[in-house]
Design a protein that fits this description.
Rossmann fold, 2 domains, 6-stranded parallel β-sheet, 16 helices, 16 strands, binds nicotinamide-adenine-dinucleotide
Length: 429
C-alpha cells in the first residue's frame, strides 16, 4: 500500500519505518527540514533502540522515503497518517498542528484516501476533520479513521510489531477492510484487532493513558504510606500484582510520571469531560497528586540532606522521564534540578542518551560518564532505571567518604546497602 505519514517524530518515524518494513511504500513528511535532511542521510534524530537499522534497511530498499513536500506526498498515497504533536495549552489539547495538516490534505484530495489520526486527539476530533474536509462536497473521496497509537518510547519497535491490540475507529466498511489488510501481518502474529466507532477509538486512547497514570499515582501514594509505616512497597506491589484483576505492570513506585503522553493526556481528558459536562474526578485527583509528587520528593531530599542543600554536590543519574528514551518532555528532573540549584546545590548529571543542553545554569554540569558525575557527590540520585545504573560500586565512583544515595527507582536491595554501610534511601521502603 502507498502510505503517507505526516509528522516524523517518535510516533511518525517508528510507524513509517515499521510499515515500510512490512512491505509498504511509505513517505514520511515533516515540516522540519533539518529532520528530513538528517533522515535522508540515515541519521535518526531521536533515540529509539532498533530504529536506525530499520530505517537504513528500508531506505536502501527504497520503500521508505523522507520528504518536506506534503502536497505530492499526499497525492501519491492511499492512506494518510496524521502523526503530529498534540500538546496541551491551558489544559486543552492544542490541535493546530492536526488541523494544519488537514488543510493540506483538503487541497490535495485527488482520489479516495483514508485519513487516519494516529496522533492522540480528543473525542469528536474525527468529526471536525470530516467537516473541514467538507464531507458533503467530497463524498466518496475520503474516510476519516481513528487509529490511536499505544507504543512506548524505548520499546517502540517491539510495541509496534507486537501490539496488544490494534484499534480502528470507523463505521466505513471500505476503510475498515483496508486498515485490517494493512495490519494483517501483525494480526496473524496474534495481535487483537478491534473495529469500533471513531469516537470510541479516540476515547480508548485517553482512557488507557489515564488509567495507567492512575495506577502509577496509586502505587506512589501507597509508597508514601509505606515510608511512614515501615512497610516495603515492593512487597505490597508484588502481593497486589499477582491478582490477575490488577496485574503487576505500572505498579512500581518512583518519581512523578512524566513524558510526552501521560501529563498532557490526563489534562486533555479532564477538559473533554468538561466539554461533555462530565466530572472526571478520579483523573483530576491523579493530576493533582502527581504534580505534588515533585515537591514531595524535593522535601524528601531536604530530609535526607538534613536541610543542608547549599554548596552540596548532587549527582543525577539519568534526567529523561524514564530509561530507554531521550525524551525530556515533562521529566521530573526539569523541576527538581533547577529547584535544588535555587537552594544552592551544584548539580552534575550523566544521561546515557547525552542530553547536554537541557539545563541553563553554570551550577549544572553535564558529565560524560557515571564516575565523572559522581566523583564529588554528597548525594547521588538515581533518577531513571538504565541497566548501567543497576550494579554500581558506589564507594568506588565517589571520592567523598560521607556520601548518600537516593534511589528513586528502587534498583538496589536495602539490606545489601545496609550490609555495605551505604547511607541509602529509596522509595516506599
Ligand atoms: N511519543 C509517544 O510515546 C507517543 C505514544 C503514543 C501516542 N503519541 C501521540 O502521537 C502524537 C505525536 O507524538 P510524538 O511524540 O511523535 O511527537 P513529536 O513532537 O516527536 O513529533 C511530531 C512531528 O510532527 C512534525 N510536524 C508538526 N506539524 C507538521 C506539519 N504541518 N507537517 C508535517 N510535520 C509536522 C514536527 O516537526 C515533529 O517532528 C501525539 O499526539 C502524541 O500524543 C505519542
Amino acid at each position: 500500500m502507498k502510505i503517507c505519514i505526516i509528522g516524523s517524530g517518535y510516533v511518525g518515524l517508528v510507524s513509517g519505518a515499521c510499515f515500510s518494513d512490512l512491505g509498504n511504500t511509505v513517505t514520511c513528511v515533516d515540516i522540519n527540514k533539518e529532520i528530513v535532511e538528517k533522515l535522508n542521510k540515515g541519521i535518526i534524530p531521536i533515540y529509539e533502540p532498533g530504529l536506525q537499522e530499520m530505517v537504513e534497511i528500508n531506505l536502501k530498499k527504497k520503500r521508505l522515503l523522507f520528504s518536506t513536500d506534503i502536497s505530492s506526498s499526499i497525492k501519491k498515497s492511499d492512506i494518510i497518517f496524521i502523526c503530529v504533536g498534540t500538546p496541551t495549552i491551558n489544559n486543552k489539547a492544542d490541535l493546530k498542528y492536526v488541523y494544519n495538516v488537514v488543510k493540506s490534505i483538503k487541497s490535495n484530495l485527488n482520489k479516495y484516501k483514508i485519513i487516519v489520526t494516529k496522533s492522540t486527539v480528543p473525542v469528536s476530533t474525527g468529526d471536525k476533520i470530516e467537516k473541514i474536509l467538507n464531507l458533503k462536497k467530497n463524498k466518496n473521496k475520503f474516510d476519516v479513521v481513528s487509529n490511536p497509537e499505544f507504543l512506548r518510547e524505548g520499546e517502540a519497535i517491539r510495541d509496534f510489531q507486537y501490539p496488544d491490540r490494534v484499534v480502528i475507529g470507523t463505521n466505513s466498511k471500505k476503510a475498515n477492510t483496508t486498515m485490517k489488510n494493512l495490519y494483517l501481518p501483525l494480526i496473524k502474529k496474534g495481535s487483537r484487532y478491534i473495529n469500533t466507532s471513531r469516537r470510541s477509538a479516540e476515547l480508548i486512547k485517553y482512557a488507557s493513558n489515564a488509567f495507567l497514570a492512575t495506577k502509577i499515582t496509586f502505587i506512589n501514594e501507597i509508597a508514601n504510606l509505606c515510608e511512614k509505616s515501615h512497610i516495603d512497597v515492593q512487597d505490597v506491589a508484588t502481593g497486589m500484582g499477582l491478582d490477575d484483576r490488577i496485574g503487576s505492570r505500572f505498579l512500581r513506585a518512583g518519581p512523578a510520571y512524566g513524558g510526552s503522553c501521560f501529563p498532557k493526556d490526563t489534562r486533555a481528558l479532564v477538559s473533554t469531560g468538561q466539554i461533555f459536562k462530565t466530572n472526571l474526578s478520579v483523573v483530576k485527583t491523579v493530576i493533582r497528586s502527581n504534580e505534588k509528587r515533585n515537591n514531595l520528593l524535593l522535601d524528601r531530599i531536604k530530609i535526607i540532606m538534613k536541610n543542608k542543600i547549599k554548596n552540596k554536590n548532587i549527582s543525577f543519574l539519568g534526567v529523561t522521564f524514564k530509561s530507554g528514551t531521550d525524551d525530556m518532555r515533562e521529566s521530573p528532573s526539569l523541576k527538581m534540578i533547577p529547584s535544588l540549584v535555587k537552594k544552592g546545590a551544584f548539580i552534575s548529571y550523566y544521561e546515557p542518551t547525552g542530553q547536554k543542553k537541557q539545563f541553563k545554569s553554570k551550577n549544572i554540569t553535564y558529565c560524560e560518564n557515571i564516575k565523572e558525575a559522581c566523583q564529588n557527590a554528597d548525594l547521588i540520585i538515581i533518577h531513571t532505571e538504565w541497566n548501567e545504573f543497576k550494579q554500581l560500586n558506589f564507594k568506588k565512583i565517589t571520592k567523598k567518604r560521607k556520601f548518600k544515595v537516593f534511589d528513586m527507582r528502587n534498583l538496589y536491595s536495602t539490606s545489601e546497602m545496609k550490609k555495605n554501610k551505604i547511607n541509602y534511601f529509596s522509595i516506599g521502603r
